[in-house]
Amino acid sequence: MALTRIVTQASTFNTEFYRQAAGLGASMNPLSHYATSGAELELPASPEAALRTKREDLTRAFDGVAPTSDRLVPVYLPGGLKRVGQCKSVLVVGHTAGKHFSGSERSFLDMLDGLAAIGLNAVAALPQDVPAYTAEVAKRACQVVIAKYGWWRDNPVSAETLRRFEDIIFRTGVDAVHVNTIMLREPLIAAANCGVPSIAHIRELITHDEALAQVIGETPERIVEMTLERADWIIANSRATAECFHKEGFTHVVPNTTDFEALDIPNIVDPSAVRFGIISSNLPKKGIDDVIELARACEDAVPNSRFVIIGPENTFIDGLKSKQVRGELPSNLTFAGYADTPLEAIRMTNVVLSFSHFAESFGRTALEGMAACRPVIAYEWGALPELVEHGSTGFLIPYRQPLAALDHVRELCQSPKLIAELGRRGREAALEKFSRTRYAERLASAYSTIFEGDWPADPDVGDPTGGNTSLSDDIARSASSVSALTQIEAETSGMLVDAGSAAGLLVKKARALADRRPAPETLKVAYFCWHFPVPSETFVLNELRTLVEWGYDVRVFCKEIPYKDFRPDFAIEWERVSSPEQFAERLRETGRTVVHAHFTYPTVTNMVLPACELAHVPFTFIAHAQDIFRYKNDELNRIGEIGRSQWCRRVLVPSKFHRRYIAERGVPESKIVINPNGIDAKLYSDGKTEGRETRPFRRVVGVHRFVEKKGLIHLVRAAKNLENEGIAVDIYGYGDLEDE
After folding, report:
1. What is the arithmetic mean of pLDDT over 717-739?
2. Which residues pair with 595 in a beta bridge?
3. Residue among 459, 419, 423, 463 nearest 440 (CA)
4. The dihedral of CA 731, 732, 733, 738: what is its sign?
5. For residue 378, which of 403, 351, 355 has the smallest C-alpha distance?
6. Nearest to residue 544, comparing CAs of 553, 455, 297?
7. Are residues 422 and 334 in the same domain?
8. Cα separation values, 129 from 126, 132, 138, 141, Å
9. What is the Cα–Cα distance from 134 to 184, expressed in whole angstroms?
10. Domain that holds residue 626
11. Are 158 and 125 in contact (CB under 8 A)?
């Protein structure tokens, strides 16, 4: 079996990929390792093999499995692009993944190309794995996530989907979330919960799309309002869309683009059969009946006109083809079926028609036609007037009046030279306005604002201009400034670490939020700990120090005082209470208005909950570590009951994992707040000593409480081996195991 794998993968073996996948050192031969053990262990020999293996795992996991939450765990697939630590990362969420690459799929691929061009890492999320499309997405992304999520319809926000996207954001460590449509709600809400910017890339003119508004179940005005509330930033694909979803100071226009190189083809016109084509999803709303009406009028009036309907088969088209068999449709009409690529579709036409009944937010097929030197006849409706210049690159006719195109059809059929001239001008205009370079420039302008200029590209990504030297100087400057950046993003966690060239940031910059803390005079806080004060519980001491500095009336209550000689380095009062009844009495006597506690069991379970119920005082607490994760405590803490108490206002947790864990145990999600631990990075950066790495000795320092759970025994054992390498190990702290 191993030999078979070696033979079949030899032609695609990727040395550097395998070295990383197998964790090999520089001196080891990757191919030899694969032949001797890697194949037997089924380690992937290339990115393609890794993607294939992941897909097979996904298939096995889903086959025959009931639709439970276990089936809905996101699957992470490798991407074809290297994730560059200095560059910002964006989770780009697509809303569809079909076998046929329609405008939605192609626009999503363009977004990924654009992000790569301006030096941003893209993590792509798809709602399902369609192998051909997933492969195209993977080529353009650093990572692909296959996750179960649905569209915005007349239903509540899915709490399960929301948690799923929060986990994805946390796991991938992205700096922003960019959705491809208004139809995705949960990713935008998850971005807000995780403190990263959210961008809605809008491609719907909802004020002119009654059918879509009915699907969503809200009025167009309310849909606009809700979208603007969810998204921090709006990227519109046309000026018309930007006017519909305008958010003052937070709106950018980034029109669609297309592959102008692939569509640079001749427009060969047969004067005896000039072809007018509509390329669409072949739904009634695309104006198929309007094309048929025009074809019927031209059958005798313009005998050399031909009309081609290009798109997938469906029940609507089946019905029309049945009519054609019965002779009920004009003879100059042809159903060409689905074309795999825009190029194949455009080749069937000399002139492109756009007769949609809903207002097109852009008009992608019109742009593709113009790129291929095809004139366009379109309704003067939606964003199409932004593409088509009447009389210069095509013709605009009144909305829902297809027969208004008859004279233009006649004129074009009588003059193939006019078709060529309009087509030439159309391609020139489209290149000037909608090239990939212009797309990248506009996308760069948007993200420069979103990231406040802090998003330089890395030279290793490649040429941000895509080989086109006309890209704006701003993008070029951002690409050249990466050497000044001192932050590198760890691929596993998304946290930032010191790059070593300067006093870099040690943590991600927090999202700028309004200061919402209540005035000090409105709160009298009872801060409860089972033990207090404890020297090693620096997070407790730091919280109390901050509350005191902010001027809050804080008094600490505790069950035990184990370190009687220890005093905090700030002014704080504390007292011991022996029972919930005594604690409740002291809450009333000291006029406390809220209790905050550290740890669930036994702190809240045995003391805070019963005391607050007796004193009628609300409380909050943090669920942190062994108080919820230790098996025995998980059985005893009653955290679901505590969270549902009318006196429990909020439950704080340090991470998404904690949030999911306690939600599964019955704590209402509306009460859970993620409050990660933090450090004062300045304490570390100020202690930096230049040239330290050149010293003749090296040292590993550990600062811990000496208890078994810290695992210090492993560090002690390692110290013996490290000593031979000239590395000293120093451990600082205190605790029960100090003598040992």
Report:
1. 78
2. 526, 619
3. 463
4. positive
5. 355
6. 553
7. yes
8. 7, 9, 11, 15
9. 19
10. 520-674
11. no
CA–CA separation, 505 and 86 (whole Å): 12
Kindly state whether residues 213 and 285 are assigned to the same domain.
no
pLDDT digits (tens, 9 = 90+) for 530-586: 999 998 888 899 889 988 988 889 999 999 998 888 999 999 999 999 999 999 999
Give the Cα separation of 19 and 492 in Å (integer): 18
Return the axis-axis angle of helices 406-414 and 416-434, rounded to nearest 10°.
110
Q: Lowest-pLDDT range, 24-28, 68-72, 380-384, 603-607?
A: 68-72
Question: Could you tell me how far CA 672 lies from the centroid of its own chain?
Answer: 22
Torsion angle of C-alpha atoms 158, 161, 162, 165, degrees rounded to 10: -160
Q: Which runs of consecutive H residues, i.e. helices, occur in 315-405?
A: 315-325, 342-347, 364-371
CB 291 within 8 A of CB 402: yes
CA 612 – CA 526 distance, rounded (Å): 11
Q: Which residues contact 400 (CB under 8 A, 6 or more apart)?
A: 290, 357, 379
Helix (H, G, I), strand (E, B) or coil at 734: strand
Q: CA 144, CA 77: separation in Å to the nearest integer? A: 5
Same domain? For 344 and 413 the reply is yes
| Spatial contact of 651 and 643, defined as CB atoms under 8 Å apart | yes
Q: How far apart are CA 77 and CA 145, in angstroms?
A: 6
Q: Among candidates 692, 690, 694, 711, which has minimal Cα distance to 702? A: 711
The percentage of residues in the chain with a pLDDT greater than 90, rounded to a whole number, is: 59
Collapsing DSSP to helix, strand or coil, 633 comes out as: helix
Select the more confidently predicted residue: 23 or 616: 616
Instruction: Indicate the average pLDDT of the chain.
Output: 83
Q: Are residues 540 and 406 in the same domain?
A: no
315-339 per-residue burial string, b: 16 or more CB within 10 A, e: under 16: eebeebeeebeeeebbebbbbbebb
Q: Are residues 109 and 179 in the same domain?
A: yes
What is the C-alpha separation between 347 and 106, in angstroms, rounded? 18
- Could you tell me if 114 and 213 lie in one domain? yes
Strand ranges for 4-103 from DSSP E? 75-78, 89-93
Ramachandran angles phi, psi of 558, nearest 5°: -145, 165
pLDDT in tens, 272-288: 999 999 999 999 999 99
Total-model pTM:
0.59
